[in-house]
Amino acid sequence: MRIITLALAALLLIIQFPLWLGKGGWLRVADMEAQVAVANKKNMELKARNAKLDSEVRDLKDGTGAVEERARFELGMVKQNEIFVQIVRKGQTPPPPQAPADTGATH
User: Fold this and answer.
1) I want to staple 66 with a disulfide (CB 3.0 to 4.6 A). Which of 9, 43, 59, 99 is the partner?
2) Which residue from 73, 69, 51, 50 is spatially nearest to 60, judged by alpha carbons?
3) Which of 80, 74, 45, 42 minimizes the C-alpha distance to 60?
4) pTM of the model
5) Exposed, middle or buried by CB within 10 Å (0-12, 13-18, 19+), for 71?
6) In sequence order, what are the residues at sequence separation of 6 or more whose Cβ sits closer than 8 angstroms to the Cβ of residue 59?
7) pLDDT band per the 50, 70, 90 thresholds, residue 107
8) What residue ranges do the domains of the chain occupy?
9) Which candidate, 32, 14, 11, 12, places its Cα nearest to that of 23?
10) Residue 48 has what pLDDT?
């Protein structure tokens, strides 16, 4: 009777092995679900980034506001007959003045 009990217990363990550690076992499924969750999070972040870039591209293609804003802040450009005023706080040193952009055309 004792041998039958041990044999049945061993058989039960052998049957449980694929369920826990096999190709489609619970541990592997949990690991795959974690990987899918990480991939979904990354995809959502990339979709948000793509939407932002798409919006910026459409704004640059259709409107002049974005181009003007970039010219002002990144290149320090001003419109003709426009006065540039820079406010420097106490203890802050102003950035060096930028030379006017040369068009590179010589006649």
Assistant:
1) 59
2) 69
3) 74
4) 0.45
5) middle
6) 65, 66
7) very low
8) 2-75
9) 32
10) 97
